[in-house]
Structure formats: C-alpha cells, structure tokens
Write a structure and sequence with these properties.
Radius of gyration: 19 Å
Number of helices: 10
Strand order of the largest sheet: 1-2-3-5-4
Strand content: 15-25%
Length: 279
C-alpha cells in the first residue's frame, strides 16, 4: 500500500516501498522507503479524526532533554502521521547497559512535574478516549479517570461480574490508604515493551501527569524488566518503600483497558481477579 500524499511537501523523494511494521493497535504502520534513500514511519487507519494530532502533541511533550528520544513528527493529518524512522523495534534481551540507561532516562522524564494531575487536553489510550481533567487529588484522579471510567465501556462492564465491580469500587475508595502521595509527573501513559525502542526512544504516547508508580506498573506488568533498570531509576528518582508491592494495584488500569478494547480475555481476567480478591 503506497499513498503519494504521505510524502507531499517533505522533500524526501517519492515512496518506492512500504513494509509493514509490527506493533500497535490503533494503526497500520509502515516503514516507507523513498527514491532519495530515506525511510520514514507512516501510521494510518480509520481512527478518530484527532487521534494523530494528539499523538503528535504527546511526542512533543515527551521531548525532554536527557530523557528518551522521540521521533520527529514530519506530517500529521486526520488519516495518517509521518514520523522519523528510529530503527528496529526489538529490544536487547540481556543488555544491562541498555536497561540502566533506560531507567535513568525515565527518571529524568518523571522529574518533570505539574502542580495538578491530568493534562491540558484529553487524548487516547488505544482508540478509547483518555480523560485528563486537571485535579489536585491524585487518588481521586486515578480512581475516577484511570479505574472506574472503564466500567461505562460495554466490553469491560460485561466482562466483569457484579462482584468484580463491587471489589473495584471498594479498592478505588481505599486508594488513599493504599497508595502514598506522589508528585504529578510527566508520564508516557502507555509504556510497555512495544513502545520502547532500542534507540532509547519512546513511541505511541498517551501522555498525562500522574503517579510515577503507575508508569512503572505497566512496564513491570509486562514482565522481564531487569533489576538494573529499577536501580538506575531510583538513583535519580527514589520511590517510596513498598513500591514493588503496589504495582499490581496500579496495573489494574491496564487490565481494565484491555477488557474495554477486547472483551473477556481469560488471562487478563485471571490477573484482575487475583488483584481484586482481597477487596
């Protein structure tokens, strides 16, 4: 699939090939080679008309000196976005140096703070709206806009039993007792392995200001993050004692998001039930 409009006005030459790139849910992604020997990444699909503009905004917000690299936005329209090509997406399996560097970069990102939780506009997590109204109270923000908000999405509501929903509501009400106060830090918002590149780069953001532990919960929930990452992170951005034990509670947001997008996924439901059981 080649669309000549992708490269209009970019002085990159004409597109000669488009190779599919794995990863991502909302878009079809291609590495496009041009007649001038350049390559770019194009994401395109039938998505909400503001999704790519909001992605561009998130990438700009994450461009913090000393933090992760982000791709340059070369062109954005309602139906596609063109990004600089930062290379392969397969992470090194056992490189402690890579993970130490990634931990330091995430710590620098999380040192960027706001006086409230939220963001200057709503955006998207997957293809579902992510609500980011400013709130002084991090516990209220996470409860309302990162947990309970998914109960109104039919896929998620129907995947959960009445007991599941009651337990989730009880947990949400107890968040001030369970999660210590944390700064409103700049978060990528969807930080799993697929959105972290070997070039020390982040892609596909769902940016907002929130709890640093919420960001770490997604990486940890994906598994296989080695100890050097967390050690390097804490050298620059120490965490409150007990942080590791709290990550499954915060990772509920991701489980709910998966159910909202895909319906009753057995593995996701099993993990959710395990976390909710004490409540």
């Amino acid at each position: 699939m080649l669309n000549p409009a992708w490269l209009d006005g970019l002085s990159l030459g004409d597109a000669v090939s488009a190779s599919p790139v794995d990863g991502g849910y909302a878009s079809k992604t291609y590495r496009v080679s041009t007649t001038l020997g350049r390559s770019v990444i194009v994401k395109t699909h039938d998505v909400p008309v503001d999704l790519y503009a909001l992605e561009a905004d998130g990438l700009e917000a994450l461009g913090v000196p000393g933090a992760f690299v982000v791709p340059e936005v070369l062109r954005v329209t309602p139906t596609f976005i063109v990004l600089s090509d930062l290379g392969a997406s397969s992470l090194p399996a056992d490189s402690d140096d890579f993970w130490r560097d990634a931990g330091r970069r995430l710590a620098v990102q999380h040192q960027q703070t706001a006086d409230k939780f939220g963001y200057h506009q709503d955006n998207y997590l997957g293809v579902l709206p992510q609500r980011n109204p400013w709130n002084d109270d991090g516990h209220a923000f996470f409860a309302e806009h990162r947990l309970l908000r998914y109960l109104e999405v039919p896929n998620c509501y129907n995947a959960l039993s009445p007991d599941d929903r009651r337990r989730l509501e009880r947990l949400a009400n107890r968040l001030p007792d369970l999660i210590p106060p944390q700064p409103a830090s700049l978060l990528h918002g969807d930080l799993w392995h697929g959105n972290l590149l070997p070039a020390r780069a982040l892609i596909d953001p769902a940016v907002y200001y929130g709890w640093p532990e919420a960001e770490l919960s997604m990486l940890h929930g994906c598994g296989n993050i080695p100890t050097p990452f967390y050690d390097a992170y804490q050298e620059l951005h120490p965490l409150n004692p007990g942080w590791l034990d709290r990550l499954p509670l915060l990772h509920l947001r991701e489980h709910l998001c998966v159910l909202a997008h895909f319906g009753p996924a057995p593995e996701t439901l099993t993990k959710l039930h395990t976390t909710l059981k004490p409540f």
